[in-house]
Amino acid sequence: MEKATFAAGCFWGVEATFRKLDGVTETAVGFSGGSSEAPSYEDVCSGRSGHAEVVQVTFDPARISYEKLLEVFFDCHDPTTMNRQGPDIGTQYRSAIFTHDDGQKAAAEKAKADQDASGRFRSPVVTEIEGAGPFYMAEDYHQQYLEKRGAKRSRWF
Questions:
Q1: What pTM value is reported for the model?
Q2: Which end of the chain has less neighbouring CB within 10 Å, N or C?
Q3: Phi-psi region of 79 (alpha: psi -120 to 50; beta: other; left: phi over 0)
Q4: Which of the residues 4, 10, 54, 57 is marked catalytic?
């Protein structure tokens, strides 16, 4: 099993999107990319922690490729808006890929360049790519949030 970590706005819908993929064995929502240790949801929402809302995906590379996960990542949000996804505004909602090794970094950089060159977007892709640091699990009530509330559909699935 391998891990992938993505920030694409509010983590509830992003998690639901990745959970549906064949080859994804586990998802967890949390925080990464900031400077404070063990932040709470309130800390992250304040904008002072530097963390983004992220989804950490555990996947079987024999069943789904990292490149396919990147494709889903770019399809489930607007990677051209800085620190914003829809009505959610702040650095915690930035578009970012946190890579776990050099292979993921190269694949993420290629996917970003391909998206930027595709003509699909009117503005440049602003997705940040950085090495994965600590992952801090969000509070339990955030895990599988939409699923727990019986959501059948969101804008992502």
A1: 0.93
A2: N
A3: alpha
A4: 10
